[in-house]
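Hi R.,

Here's the chain you asked about this morning:
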Amino acid sequence: MVEEIIDCALAWGLSPGLAVRAYRTIRSYVYGDLIFRRAAARRAEHPPSKRYFPDMVTEADAAQPPRLDAIITGLPARGTRSASGAPAG
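And the predicted structure, written out as tokens:
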């Protein structure tokens, strides 16, 4: 299979060095895909005991982020800045 991929790359006009790089790129892609598929199958067979972050966020969390809400609420009390960046007044 290695020879076939390199031969095809050479037939398409790649230099020998680029043909080897093309083979390594294809090999890395396929190998990575196989690893991710196997990991997904393993997780499906044995789900993790810890929940992933997106699953932990509820509608209530999204409706009211406390820190951001406190910052936004405090902005009018702090005043505004002029165009130059200096405090108003």
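The CA atoms of residues 8 and 28 lie 17 Å apart.

Let me know if you need anything else.
M.
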